[in-house]
Amino acid sequence: MFRGLLHIVAILALGILVGSLLFFGTGVASVIFRDGLLPSRTLAGVVNGAIIHRLAVTQGLVATIAVLSLGYLALVTPRSTSRVATGFALVSLLCTLYAGLILLPEISQLRFEIADFDHILEAKKGAHERFGVLHSRYTFVAMIQLLSGTLALILHSLWVWRRGSNRVQEGGLQVERGTSKGEKGSREGETGTAERQSNGNKKQETHSESSENVTKVEETPEAS
């Protein structure tokens, strides 16, 4: 029961991790900076930064839950698939920690220092270049995080599915074996009943023959 709950928790945590990354990449970052959606790139960056920080907290939490769940399952059921899935989940957690604790604080500081991204001042070009480098690094780390989380989710889900299929097959074989044993017992019971009936009939026939012989002896006249 406890292991089954951990399987569900691990799959759910990995699903949230992967889903949040996909949604942020395709439904948030690519939309916020679209021309005409917000008045300025500075405002778009502020909104995007607030979402990224909330996302980092959520990803750190679910990645930690996934690693702990998969790690425990890998210890109690030491199989290669579980260990590989745990390894990928751990890589995703490390990427989350690196992005949330190292990259994002410096990115936020540079965003506050630059202030206006629509008109970059000459004195802020160095900070803007550093911001671009960190932003590219964050994107690369997020891609690794997404890939490792997806692999962990696929591997663990396939392992759970195969385990369930094997249990269903084993249950079917046990039912078939039980049915076969029942049929065999029924046939043996029918054979024993037939043998008992046959033995009874033979005993009755022997008793009848004995009675007839006695009757014939009694009816035979004595010699004069």
Describe this structure in words.
- There is one protein chain.
- By secondary structure, this protein is mainly α.
- The protein has one domain.
- The protein is 88% helix and 0% strand.
- Helix 1 runs antiparallel to helix 2.
- The radius of gyration is 40 Å and the shape is elongated.
- The C terminus is likely disordered.
Strand content: under 5%
Count of folded domains: 1
* Amino- and carboxy-terminal Cα gap: 98 Å
How much is the average pLDDT? 80
What is the helical fraction, as a range of percent? over 70%
Low-confidence stretches: 213-224
Order of helices and strands: HHHH
Count of individual beta strands: 0
- For the CA atoms, what is the radius of gyration? 40 Å
Structural class: mainly alpha
**Regarding quaternary structure, how should these chains be classified?**
single chain
- What is the number of helical segments per DSSP (H or I, 4+ residues)? 4
Largest sheet: none
Shape descriptor reads elongated
Main traits of this protein?
88% helix, elongated
Describe, in short, the structure shown:
The chain is mostly helical and 224 residues long. 88% of the residues lie in helices and 0% in strands. Residues 213-224 have low confidence and may be disordered.
Secondary-structure map:
Blueprint: H1 2-32, H2 41-76, H3 80-114, H4 125-219
Helix pairs in contact: 1-2, 1-4, 2-3, 3-4
